[in-house]
Amino acid sequence: MLNLTGKKALVTGIANNRSIAWGIAQQLHQAGASLGITYLPDDKGRFEKKVRELVEPLQPSIFLPCNVQDDEQIDAAFEAIASQWDKLDILIHCLAFANKEDLSGEFSATTRQGFNTALEVSSYSLNRLAAAAKPLMKEGGSIVTLSYLGGVKVIPNYNVMGIAKAALEMSVRYLAAELGPQNIRVNAISAGPIRTLASSAVGGILDMIHHVEQVAPLRRTVTQLEVGNTAAFLCSDLASGITGQVLYVDAGYEIMGM
Asked: Fewer CB within 10 Å, N- or C-terminus of the chain?
């Protein structure tokens, strides 16, 4: 029943084969969606090469640089998308960043620059990409972003990223309210801890994963592909009545008190 054939999906945030965005891209492809991929450009082209080689089996029809801290790059990316695709059905937002020094120590010591960077990349970028995608979602669409429990509860060594995720989750609700009349749905997936390039910056990530494996009802954490399955569901007609929600894909950990 889950069929995305004919749907065009833009996936952001793939860094390597451990990325949650990679798990999502694989499941969207398996469900029949045509893929567009963006990558974070760097001076030496290392990210482009790595991501291009990784996604090659998925045969993306669009492959573009997009640094979400650069409005010109965002505009250029969506102009390129509009020139190649007649529409956009799905936007996957898997972008988050904070300076490593702002993820540990005293939260009150967070620098102004560090706070602004975390909020800009991890939260504001969803608003900016949604605004760019909206004109292309002529037949409605689905926008899915990634959150984490640290946006609603205190998690050690998460600090400013928790504030960014809280802002992201509230942005999901405001965007859902704004875009709903155009049949554009906006949801977030709050995934359990997964060892990724991004999570490696969080001190004690392996301890967090082991704790979840001991406490979560399923006695394990989740995989990138399980998150990908949920994203594919949210992007399909099976989820046509769901918007403005944060779905926990964390083996049930969120429900536990102790």
From this structure: C
